[in-house]
Design a protein that fits this description.
Elements (H helix, E strand, L loop, with lengths): L12 H14 L12 H8 L3 H13 L3 E4 L3 E4 L4 H25 L4 H14 L1
Antiparallel strand pairs: 1-2
Helix pairs in contact: 1-3, 2-3
Keywords: DNA-binding, Transcription, Transcription regulation
InterPro entries: Tscrpt_reg_HTH_GntR, WH-like_DNA-bd_sf, WH_DNA-bd_sf
GO molecular function: DNA binding; DNA-binding transcription factor activity
Length: 124
């Protein structure tokens, strides 16, 4: 798992880490029970503070994406299929909201927007 930090981004580093790990879990690149790098190892690899990495892991644990076992490390949480589905639904809703806003700004009505979506779904 490669994590890339964009120093010029307005997004805090801990959020970049959490987002990329969450994305890997949602994409199936990390499966239930897979170990994550230790907080110190990840901090060293990324050349960032241990506190920053710890905050990213804490956010992931709070959201239910990872479990941390004292003395053993952090692992991809099990039984979070419903959580992953909800996260994906939220992402789709965000994209659809953005598309609806853009369509309205371009003068595209609901019927035309539905037709566009239907065409896109047929292609897949």
């Amino acid at each position: 798992m490669d994590i890339i930090i964009a120093n010029g981004s307005s997004e805090p580093i801990y959020e970049q880490i959490a987002r990329q790990i969450k994305g890997a879990i949602m994409a199936g690149e990390l499966a239930e029970g897979d170990p994550l790098p230790s907080i110190r190892a990840l901090a060293n690899d990324l050349r960032i503070s241990v506190i920053t990495t710890k905050r990213a892991y804490a956010e992931l644990e709070e959201a239910g994406f990872i479990d941390t076992v004292q003395g053993k490390g952090s692992f991809v949480a099990g039984g979070n299929l419903e959580l992953l589905r909800e996260e994906r639904l939220r992402q789709v809703e965000t994209h659809l909201t953005r598309a609806a806003t853009e369509a309205a700004a371009a003068g595209i009505g609901p019927a035309d927007l539905h037709a566009m979506l239907d065409l896109l779904l047929e292609e897949d």
